[in-house]
């Protein structure tokens, strides 16, 4: 009898507690920054596409829902010609983000992707590419890679010596 | 055999090999860079260190470079010894100090030997904190991309390019840690075998430039075993596809045929499959619009077949199955070879020689082991490039056998061997109309008119075996040369005579056969290699059929009025006038092809056939080796193999044989039933119901990505994967993961070995045959039941004619072959048409270099710029064959020179 009354009392007290339930969608949930939600493609600090179309995200994807094709601009900078994620297959595991050598692909705290038509869950590059660096600031892959691209010639990357003079014998 | 102990486990291994290849043969993982099975050891990279112990009591041991150490009986070594492991990790750490942070944008990534070896040694983090060295790259032509930053200085590229392939323009420059591997200045790499650098280089310094234009990682390719269609040697290739287009060709090791290498025509000629002139839809000319679906096209074709009297024209570039199907459909009497009559006769002659000769026709590997070579009338570098590469190795045989074995140096000790041999070369004699790239290796060269070459050949045969017919009126010099050649051939253990059809001259081939027969009569183990014009010339000849001329006559005489042409541009095999006349006099023309050509313009019904990567089939190469090529990727319904189109036509018209054939295997058994000589082709590959553990063999690696996204833009609901009824291969990544039978290996991969170097794991011993035997079945073996017969067709001395030039066919590796000439990268290397004239003749005729010279062959007018040649015989001239803009003429032939010839510029259609 006592336990019954105690339970009722405790339940009654909950009426005065702070609410855990929020009035979604009028009120939005505050998600941790490392929440694995919608996938975006980010840009480097110079505004260039970070994705270099290396295919590692696609290879890491356990459900194979990423497909892309690499291409190059006239200066040799590689970028994806198309980049497609089939979110109707995506399990938001974040392996693609782990695999990405350039911080291009990132999972962001957004889960509001519901669609009535499944076809609309197929995201192309125009749907994925954002105008910012996302979670990881300051990294610019091409500034540390050895490839020459437009605006960065051989030997101009970080921690690089100027190109070797093949005709010199000086040590 | 010797017993060695690796980490205290005893192994029985053959002696004479080095430790590294022995360990790899035993399946051990030992990292290496500078060593290559085809090029031997130089001990430059220090990566393959192992511990070697004096005896079982020795616990300390010493570090040895395993590639430089010969196997000894009772040897004790350790691969896993901590000191050896640490040493290897350090070495790779040093190699990586300057390696750029490029893997993500590097074409080698995912198939990179350096990546594999780095992971294998466990080197994870770069400890070197200083700046990285950089280099300026070079432009190396349309085939290869240069990215010098990635170099680890293993020297493989120059060792391959200079020492193995005989190239001149790639070298190592500068000194100490500034070594630069490249050309003296930017420019196109001259070697015809430069593409192999992409595979020889353990990292991404040299990569395939054509792949870069539609880059795909190796793990993302759908791959299948295929056979090169660009010459008669039948090199084995792996073709890779992604998103419906062919992406690259890589070497598929075949110990008997191409080994580790391919020529550039074979490696980069694949782009014709993606070319704009592909036929992707069947056309019915009477319909509007012409492009139509499969069933309408089939109906239209059947209607034409029912209305007319049908003959068929096959093709030397179509598979055996397609030709056989056509032959069955139109009947044996109505089946014609779509090749010029001269080519027809020469191919038949070659087949007859190989069938009836006591001499064996050696495979490419056996040619490499020949210790004396005599080439008659063939410019191998341009007609059968990989054979030229084999000859380059053959000239090293005699010094290897004599000096090196005497000095007790193992042949894999590459640096020591080359130091000892220097520029010494074995006997190689070349008798050709004009200079070739192999001349630099030759003991003697002989530039002359074809008749003179044949006469020299007959004379050699006569000297070796006096019962073979002699040559009258030979000059002293020539007689002396013939004697020298005969002596060299008689002295050799494995002499090989090489000739072929490219000269278009029967007497040369007959002379080559005579020499071989003479050597055999003297009980030498001689070999004869005859190159043929096209990939399946041999298969077509073995099928039998009538000449092209008789097809023309059949229509002219009203015997037939409808023609089915399978994968053949007749304008490349007969004169323009004759073909146009023929096609116009045919009431209806049905063409099956995959590239638009002048012939397809005349087609009333054009059926879209599958190119080599979209078809299954068998090719028979010049040594009579039947080899299967597999379809690489599923095609849309409208494109299918020619034999499938013809089979469907046959089924609709209720052909009494074809209606009973269901699928690929039935065609093979029908071929064997019809042609007992081809017994064995049904066993070239396992039948289509072959399974391992109940599973198919996947064409895609297990890391294949994007399955659920590739076609999601079309429809988010995934389609059922296409099925392959013709082979035990699946178009997916599911299936048996072990090693498939050697004839159907879709790609080489082993755990920890992602690059093509994983082929080690597929070989019985490193550099030897594939496990389960090398792919392909030889249909022609020496037959001793025929009596040795010597041809007596010794030609007369060549006499120049005033006002005329004897036009000889000249071949070009890039441009002379029909399919590869449609490839964008190859097109950049195709030379401009020209006419090569002897320098003295030109002086006499007051012609200068570059001047346009009008002439006529068989009524066909030409006007081409003159190219002076000091080597071509006086009274003859060389016309490049098959180049875009050079019309067909049956060569060799006399040309009438007419300086006043009225030349009206004509509109030329090139495709």
TrEMBL record, chain A:
Cell compartments where the protein resides = Cell inner membrane; Cell membrane
How this chain sits in the membrane, per its record, is: Peripheral membrane protein
Read off the Gene3D superfamilies from this record: 3.30.70.3270
* Stretches assigned to the 4Fe-4S ferredoxin-type domain: 39-71, 81-110
**GO BP terms in the entry:** aerobic respiration
Chief subcellular location? membrane
One GO MF term = quinone binding
Q: Which InterPro entries does the entry mention?
A: 4Fe4S_Fe-S-bd (IPR017896), 4Fe4S_Fe_S_CS (IPR017900), NADH_quinone_OxRdtase_chainI (IPR010226)
Q: Does the keyword Disulfide bond apply?
A: no
Keyword set for this entry? Answer: 4Fe-4S, Cell membrane, Iron, Iron-sulfur, Membrane, Metal-binding, NAD, Oxidoreductase, Quinone, Repeat, Translocase, Ubiquinone
Name any GO cellular component annotation.
plasma membrane
List the catalysed reactions.
a quinone + NADH + 5 H(+)(in) = a quinol + NAD(+) + 4 H(+)(out)
Regarding protein family, the annotation reads: Belongs to the complex I 23 kDa subunit family.
Question: What does this protein do, in the record's words?
Answer: NDH-1 shuttles electrons from NADH, via FMN and iron-sulfur (Fe-S) centers, to quinones in the respiratory chain. The immediate electron acceptor for the enzyme in this species is believed to be ubiquinone. Couples the redox reaction to proton translocation (for every two electrons transferred, four hydrogen ions are translocated across the cytoplasmic membrane), and thus conserves the redox energy in a proton gradient.
Q: Please identify the protein, giving its name as recorded.
A: NADH-quinone oxidoreductase subunit I
- Gene name linked to the record: nuoI
Automatic annotation (TrEMBL), chain B:
**Occurrences of domain 2Fe-2S ferredoxin-type (ranges):** 1-83
4Fe-4S Mo/W bis-MGD-type domain span: 221-277
Top-level taxon of origin: Bacteria
Q: Which PROSITE patterns match?
A: 2FE2S_FER_2 (PS51085), 4FE4S_HC3 (PS51839), 4FE4S_MOW_BIS_MGD (PS51669), COMPLEX1_75K_1 (PS00641), COMPLEX1_75K_3 (PS00643)
4Fe-4S His(Cys)3-ligated-type domain segment(s): 83-122
InterPro entries assigned to the protein according to its UniProt record, in alphabetical order: 2Fe-2S_ferredoxin-like_sf (IPR036010), 2Fe-2S_ferredoxin-type (IPR001041), Asp_de-COase-like_dom_sf (IPR009010), Mopterin_OxRdtase (IPR006656), Mopterin_OxRdtase_4Fe-4S_dom (IPR006963), NADH_UbQ_OxRdtase_75kDa_su_CS (IPR000283), NADH_UbQ_OxRdtase_ferredoxin (IPR054351), NADH_UbQ_OxRdtase_Gsu (IPR010228)
Which Pfam families does the UniProt entry name for this protein? Answer: Fer2_4, Fer4_Nqo3, Molybdop_Fe4S4, Molybdopterin, NADH-G_4Fe-4S_3
Quote the NCBIfam families the UniProt record gives: NuoG
Among PANTHER family, the record links this protein to:
NADH-QUINONE OXIDOREDUCTASE SUBUNIT G, RESPIRATORY NITRATE REDUCTASE
Protein name (database record): NADH-quinone oxidoreductase subunit G
**Taxonomy of the source species:** Bacteria, Pseudomonadati, Bacteroidota, Cytophagia, Cytophagales
